[in-house]
Amino acid sequence: MAGARRGPKKTGKKTGKKTGEKKSGTGKSSSGFVKRGNARYDRHDAYYKKAKREGFVARSVYKLEEIDAQYHLLHKGDKVLDLGCAPGSWLQYVQKKLDPARGGQAVGIDLLPTHTGFPSWVETRIGDIYDEDAQGLLPDGVDAFTVVLSDMAPNTTGVRTVDQARSMALCEHALYLAEELLAPGGRFCVKVLEGGDMPQFLTRCREVFDTVKIKRPKGTRDTSSETYVVGLDRKKRSSAG
User: Fold this and answer.
1) Does the N-terminal or the C-terminal CB of the chain have fewer CB atoms within 10 Å?
2) Catalytic residue among 191, 215, 218, 235
3) Domains plus CATH for the chain?
4) Is 49 a catalytic residue?
């Protein structure tokens, strides 16, 4: 994909300001659990209860945990970019996996702020990924990321084809950023709404990564059409690009 904007600009994960503003960490480990979805359902949901009990701001953390356990996405010295990071549960998990003494560092960006604080080596930004310069997402002194994560989802309309198209636009832009910013050997994980242009997207992923897998974590709600595409071992750039 080229870096051009695809579809409506404000289709990101709960869109908000486009300031590119950086937020310094507070050192706090957790904040209040973010209540989403059907409250009656959530009260009986094991992942909801577990996240609340363990101090994570959203149940989606266990999807990343399961994917990481199977594909070994995260290592202590990684440089991680988390796209659509709010409310912050994936960054909380990333923080646990990285070791700043070994160079571990993370940047998260979303149009809404996170609901928890982070140490200084986990940077959060408020911004629109369609407006951000790819190289500007890199922290000072870092030439490339080793992991790009995306749990972005569109503001849904209830019209399946529209929602799938908006989701795919986000996925394609996440892949573009991964292609631009990942070091050779880097890893990629992106949420996709199944259907639509999924086969073409997988083909594009295989052009960038040696190994491409599809994973539907156990924590995914039964009624959801979401799944995750995992790219492993980012290929070296050709001399032409």
Assistant:
1) C
2) 191
3) 21-234 (3.40.50.150)
4) no
